[in-house]
Amino acid sequence: MSDRIGAYEAKTKLPELLRGVASGKRYTITHRGRVIAELVPPEEARRRDATEAVEAMKRFMAGRRPVRGADIKALIEYGRD
């Protein structure tokens, strides 16, 4: 879970927050009660981005009918000359 912190406080305490992030802590930054950013360790951010990309692809594919009779290898090779 992450700590919530206001944008002004985050600005004034940035070095302290960065030390916390370096040690694995997460912060959710808010502005007037609305979430505007997250400070997370870099590896966690990449992993979350990959997970979100996979979930987005699953949502995209769920709304489509499967393609039948397509030669995938031919499609990959198309235009590679």
Helix and strand topology:
Layout: E1 3-6, H1 7-12, H2 14-22, E2 27-31, E3 34-39, H3 42-62, H4 72-77
Parallel strand pairs: 1-2
Antiparallel strand pairs: 2-3
- The number of helices is 4
Helix content estimate:
40-55%
Q: Please give the number of β-strands.
A: 3
| SS strand fraction | 15-25%
Highest-level CATH class: Alpha Beta
Largest sheet: 3 strands, mixed
Uncertain runs are none
What's the CATH topology name? YefM-like fold
Basic shape = elongated
Which class best fits the helix and strand makeup? alpha+beta
Strand order of the largest sheet: 1-2-3
Q: CATH H level: which superfamily?
A: YefM-like domain
Q: For the record, give the distance between the C-alpha atoms at the N and C termini, rounded to a whole number.
A: 51 Å
| Structural Rg | 21 Å
Count of folded domains: 1
For this entry, what is the oligomeric state of its chains?
single chain
Nearest-integer average pLDDT:
89
Describe the structure.
The chain is an alpha+beta fold and 81 residues long. The protein has one domain: YefM-like fold. The chain is built from four helices and three strands. A three-stranded mixed β-sheet has the order 1-2-3. A hairpin with a 2-residue loop joins β2 and β3. The protein is elongated.
